[in-house]
Amino acid sequence: MVFLTEFAVPVVASYVASMAFALLYNVHGKNVHIASLCGAFSYAVYLVVMQFTDSMVIPNFLGGVVIAIYAELAAMIFKAPITVYLVPGIVPLVPGLTIYKAMEACLRGNLAVGGAGVVNTIKIGGAIALGLILTSYFFRLFRSIAQKLGRDAVCRQ
Amino acid sequence: MDAVVKKELTVNQVIDMIANVGYSIIKHGGEIHRAEDTATRIGLAYGMDQVHVFAISSTILVTVEKDGVTKTQNRRVTGNSTNLDRIEQLNSLSRKICTELPSYQEVMAELRRIEGRHCYSQGMNVLFYALIGGSFAVFFGGGVAEMIVGFSVGALMRLVIWLLEYLKSASFLVNTVGAAIIVTTVKLASLVYPALNVDASISGPLMNLVPGILLTNCIRDIVSADYVAGTAKMIETLIVACSIALGVAVSVLWR
Questions:
Q1: By residue range, what is the domain housing residue A94?
Q2: Does the distance separating the beta carbons of B213 and A97 come in below 8 Å?
Q3: Could you tell me the residue ranges of all domains in chain B?
């Protein structure tokens, strides 16, 4: 029962949320489901990592890494630009509840809670972005290594 | 064969093509890095000696040089909106340009075809907003009641936003009114059904407005050394956050 409410329901919800964002951003065809799986998968990793740490940064960072690896691989396999998978994939990790609670606390004059919320938002956003960017640099490195070795590197931009 | 095709294009045609492709990529929410990279590749593929591209989310500036002739064009980008289908099409177009070097008319016809591609209808967008609201309400710990509230509030908000956009209202006002509608309707619903999880039901539909992707892209731009584009996005994020906070401020009325 705990598994159901704490894991399965949020993961399914994150799948639907990613799908709705993918559709809102006008993704067509099979890419809709590939992009939604990216969101659900990274959120599942996030939830598992959450069990092992109290830190807010590490699960978000690893979530970002998983999104980027998934999206890079999907972009290579399905020959689409990586943004198509990246943007819907990020959606479940976006700290919406944290932002809302910070806003409300600030409005009610509770600056201690509100300020901490703002800092947490920047921390989470930064962790996700760093996970994405670090992974994409590694992929760029692998690609140029593959080119240097004279292999037929996958043509993409 | 390649040399013949390259000769057919004048510097003016190449720069026009580059500026148009770059413009479309930025307008439809592609990364700055992608726009600059694609434009440079196309220019070099058509045999230009030098190609310099500078882009931020509101403008793109292109300079090409060939045999001592230098040309510069600039495009102002307004009304940016993320459209991943267009980005995908533009990506395959630029790949095609770099490998096949098609004629100027062919590329322009292809660009027009991409701009005219099917988008989801307004009615479908109402459904997507509702789905985002409902699924995030569950995601933030809500149950069936929160899902229903989030779903209907999302749909209602999209209808109002649609009206405001039709009236060409400023996006600041759109966000403020959207957030105020969410907070007001959810608080009213909690009067009818006191057991409602208000936080989950509000932040679910609010995810439609929250600039999370903008924030992440802003940090990505800054980390990949596009500082001007990144700073502009950071300020945009702040303004969007302020506009939403102003709408959320309606909740103070219930205290």
A1: 2-148
A2: no
A3: 2-115, 122-254
Instruction: Answer whether B228's CB lies under 8 Å from B161's CB.
Output: no
Give domain status of residue A157, yes or no.
no
Question: Is residue B250 less than 8 Å (CB to CB) from chain A?
Answer: no
| pLDDT in the model for residue B2 | 47
| Cβ-based neighbour number of residue B237 at 10 Å | 21
B144-159 pLDDT, tens per residue?
A: 999 999 999 999 999 9
> Which tokens sit at A137?
């640099």
pLDDT tens sequence across B7-33: 568 889 999 999 999 999 999 988 888
Q: Is residue A144 part of a domain?
A: yes
Q: Do B95 and A28 touch (CB under 8 A)?
A: no
- Contact state of A26 with B125 under an 8 Å Cβ cutoff: no
Which chain A residues are within 8 Å of B219, Cβ to Cβ?
A: 125-126, 129-130
Tell me the pLDDT of chain B averaged across its residues: 88
Residue A154, number of CB atoms within 10 A of its CB: 11
Identify the pLDDT of residue A3: 77
| Measured distance CA(A120)–CA(A59) in Å, rounded | 13
> Measuring CA to CA, which residue among A7, A6, A73, A92 is closest to residue A34?
A73
Taking CA atoms, what residue in B is nearest to A125?
B216
Please calculate the CA angle B140-B145-B146 and round it to the nearest 5 degrees: 25
Other Cβ atoms closer than 10 A to B217 = 26
Q: Closest Cα of chain A to B95: distance in Å? A: 8
* Window B:197-216, CB contacts with A under 8 Å: 199-200, 202-203, 206-207, 210, 212-213, 215-216
Total structural domains within chain A: 1
